[in-house]
């Protein structure tokens, strides 16, 4: 399985901070993943409007942030529905376990936000697997870790679980108009 490359987590964190966006990079990617699961392929600006401050005249920092985010949008759209590619998650792979775990919680929070923004109502009848994933994401929003080999292994397992779960959400929640388009 090959992997589409996302920009470095720290690069996106810096771009977002420069553009005065208060959302962490992992949460922003989670919002995109949730929207894609709920809506198929949301437009770039539909995603951006969920978390970026609106500005009349974007400065160079804002424009640079948009360029970095566009890369994430393209890479994620390419991989989320294609089993040939591993689904990359925007996490700080070089950070300590506490920071990586916090980013995993941010990503989970973003996915839930994206699902809700995309119109998924967790209170209605959903497939049991979908409901279970949403419950797991809710629990992951509160996860914390300390240094230790067991936590390193647990982090890797949770990251893998999250990537597979997001793919399952995308497959199970695929909007009817997308299913109809693929049949023609």
Question: How would you sum up this structure, described in words?
Answer:
α2 packs across α4, α2 runs parallel beside α7 and α5 packs across α6. This protein has one domain: Four Helix Bundle (Hemerythrin (Met), subunit A). It is built from 8 helices and 2 strands. The protein is mostly helical and 184 residues long. A two-stranded parallel sheet has the order 1-2. The C terminus is likely disordered. Helices cover 64% and strands 2% of the residues.
Q: Tell me the major beta sheet.
A: 2 strands, parallel
CATH superfamily: YgfB uncharacterised protein family PF03695
Main sheet strand line-up: 1-2
In DSSP terms (H or I, runs of 4 or more residues), the helix count works out at 8
Oligomer: single chain
Q: Which structural class fits the helix and strand makeup?
A: mainly alpha
Helix content: 55-70%
Low-pLDDT ranges: 176-184
Query: What is the C-level CATH assignment?
Result: Mainly Alpha
Mean pLDDT: 88
Spatial extent as radius of gyration: 16 Å
How large is the share of residues in beta strands?
A: under 5%
Total number of beta strands: 2
- Tell me the overall shape: globular
What is the CATH architecture descriptor?
Up-down Bundle
Secondary-structure element pattern, one letter each: EHHHHEHHHH
N- to C-terminal distance: 28 Å
- Please indicate the count of domains: 1
Tell me the CATH topology: Four Helix Bundle (Hemerythrin (Met), subunit A)
Task: Indicate the topology.
Elements: E1 2-3, H1 9-18, H2 25-39, H3 44-48, H4 60-80, E2 85-86, H5 97-117, H6 128-140, H7 149-173, H8 176-183
Parallel strand pairs: 1-2
Helix pairs in contact: 1-4, 2-4, 2-5, 2-7, 5-6, 5-7
């Amino acid at each position: 399985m090959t992997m589409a490359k996302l920009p470095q987590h720290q690069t996106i964190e810096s771009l977002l901070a420069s553009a005065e966006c208060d959302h962490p990079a992992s949460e922003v990617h989670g919002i995109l993943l949730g929207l894609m699961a709920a809506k198929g392929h949301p437009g770039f600006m539909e995603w951006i409007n969920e978390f970026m401050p609106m500005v009349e005249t974007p400065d160079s920092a804002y424009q640079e942030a948009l360029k970095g985010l566009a890369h994430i949008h393209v890479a994620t759209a390419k991989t989320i529905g294609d089993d040939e590619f591993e689904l990359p998650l925007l996490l700080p792979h070089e950070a300590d376990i506490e920071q990586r775990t916090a980013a995993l919680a941010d990503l989970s929070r973003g996915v839930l936000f994206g699902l809700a923004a995309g119109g998924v109502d967790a209170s209605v009848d959903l497939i049991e697997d979908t409901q279970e994933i949403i419950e797991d994401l809710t629990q992951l929003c509160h996860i914390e870790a300390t240094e230790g080999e067991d936590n390193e292994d647990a982090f890797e397992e949770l990251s893998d679980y999250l990537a597979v779960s997001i793919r399952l959400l995308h497959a199970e929640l695929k909007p009817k108009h997308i299913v109809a388009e693929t049949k023609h």
